[in-house]
């Protein structure tokens, strides 16, 4: 009977921890390649943004009500930042962003005289103001030419953020903490 009690307590603890602190997320689609791939399982830290605001370069999971699902993207701009995307150059507050996480992919395209970002620049006809409002973030997918991100869906409200992606746990050979 003691073992049954221990199992029930363990299950309750797991459910409470999962509900309050962490959530699993499955990557779906190519928008975060080369860093994240379809089918990878990620642990999302749900409480970090109750303590502080998102920071530049962090990978977040957020709800997109118009799409009816969650997205995973990288934070490029935080409240008050002025963001500009022109081809493969991203500037925040007039400073070029050093995107080490996609540098190899960008350089490979440039060697072939191609742009890595063949999609929309920013600001654009959908989002005309490049200054991130209070309570929002500007996000981009790492795969700029195949990503639905702030260039098309606009700024992401803090209230729609599920949390920060902290750990890839599946497949096991890809197990690692996510660098931010």
TrEMBL record:
One of its GO terms (biological process) is signal peptide processing. The lineage of its organism: Bacteria, Bacillati, Bacillota, Bacilli, Bacillales. The keyword Transport does not apply. It is a single-pass type II membrane protein. Belongs to the peptidase S26 family. Residues 1-170 form the Peptidase S26 domain. The active site is at 31, 73. This is Signal peptidase I. Keywords: Hydrolase, Membrane, Protease, Transmembrane, Transmembrane helix. InterPro entries: LexA/Signal_pep-like_sf (IPR036286), Pept_S26A_signal_pept_1 (IPR000223), Pept_S26A_signal_pept_1_CS (IPR019758), Pept_S26A_signal_pept_1_Lys-AS (IPR019757), Peptidase_S26 (IPR019533). Its EC number is 3.4.21.89. NCBIfam families: sigpep_I_bact (TIGR02227). GO terms for molecular function: serine-type endopeptidase activity; signal peptidase activity. It is found in: Cell membrane; Membrane. The keyword Magnesium does not apply. The chain crosses the membrane at residues 6-27. One of its GO terms (cellular component) is plasma membrane. It catalyses: Cleavage of hydrophobic, N-terminal signal or leader sequences from secreted and periplasmic proteins. PROSITE patterns: SPASE_I_2 (PS00760), SPASE_I_3 (PS00761).
């Amino acid at each position: 009977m003691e073992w049954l009690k221990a199992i029930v307590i363990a299950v309750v603890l797991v459910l409470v921890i999962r509900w309050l602190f962490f959530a699993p997320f499955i990557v779906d689609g190519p928008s975060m390649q080369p860093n994240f791939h379809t089918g990878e399982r990620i642990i999302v830290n749900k409480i970090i943004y109750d303590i502080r605001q998102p920071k530049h370069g962090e990978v977040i999971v957020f709800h997109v009500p118009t799409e009816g699902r969650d997205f995973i993207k990288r934070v490029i701009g935080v409240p008050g930042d002025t963001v500009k995307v022109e081809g493969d150059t991203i500037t925040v507050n007039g400073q070029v962003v050093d995107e080490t996480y996609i540098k190899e992919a960008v350089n490979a395209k440039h060697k072939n005289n191609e742009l890595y970002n063949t999609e929309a620049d920013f600001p654009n006809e959908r989002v005309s103001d490049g200054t991130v409002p209070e309570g929002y973030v500007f996000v981009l997918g790492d795969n700029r030419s195949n990503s639905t991100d702030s260039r098309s869906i606009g700024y992401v409200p803090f209230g729609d953020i599920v949390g920060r992606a902290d750990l890839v746990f599946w497949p096991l050979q890809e197990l690692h903490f996510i660098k931010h």
